[in-house]
């Protein structure tokens, strides 16, 4: 089976080891995965599209997924997931439709020290600030939300084929962000049946091939939806000695292509 692994060039520089890892492991499954950069794809197309059975989109660009899907290429993740993972408003609308709490999106911007501002398409904590400290002139692609102050941490539920395979809680020292890349700590989270049910409630109507579903954990033990990460990494898992996610993901791809 032949497939594409699509990256932005900037992201590839930070993830070249992962690319080699997934290509080498795919070869053990009898799969050939070709690395393609999104800039080249948009500039020149891909004339050998009839020779590929699937594509792994790691660009966060749902337009690219749609182009491939319209040409009958199975994309992991599908465009619907990529949209939810990179448009926070769309993700909150989905959460609302599933009756799941999320930090309120504000129309009233008074008391700015208690409002957090973030890019609609942001990830990794980039561009997240208190509204009172923000120095930008264009708010078109930003959203304002109530700042939650009673948080114990942020839980990432790793999901393959709509099934939770692991959960990690990230903690910080009292700052705004819980991202592991911001030098915060993480540990395995022992989730309950109620947590399991809530994650699957969020996933209702979705086909999640390999995602991270993030929930804030409050001091009272309540889960509040944070975001969906469609280009989920494995750094936290690897640092905790868990290294089977790539194998599980490739097994899922094989099963999907075989119609399992």
TrEMBL record:
<dbReference type="GO" id="GO:0005737">
    <property type="term" value="C:cytoplasm"/>
</dbReference>
<dbReference type="GO" id="GO:0018169">
    <property type="term" value="F:ribosomal S6-glutamic acid ligase activity"/>
</dbReference>
<protein>
    <submittedName>
        <fullName>Glutathione synthase/RimK-type ligase, ATP-grasp superfamily</fullName>
    </submittedName>
</protein>
<feature type="domain" description="ATP-grasp fold RimK-type">
    <location>
        <begin position="144"/>
        <end position="248"/>
    </location>
</feature>
<dbReference type="Pfam" id="PF08443">
    <property type="entry name" value="RimK"/>
</dbReference>
<dbReference type="InterPro" id="IPR013651">
    <property type="entry name" value="ATP-grasp_RimK-type"/>
</dbReference>
<dbReference type="GO" id="GO:0009432">
    <property type="term" value="P:SOS response"/>
</dbReference>
<keyword id="KW-0436">Ligase</keyword>
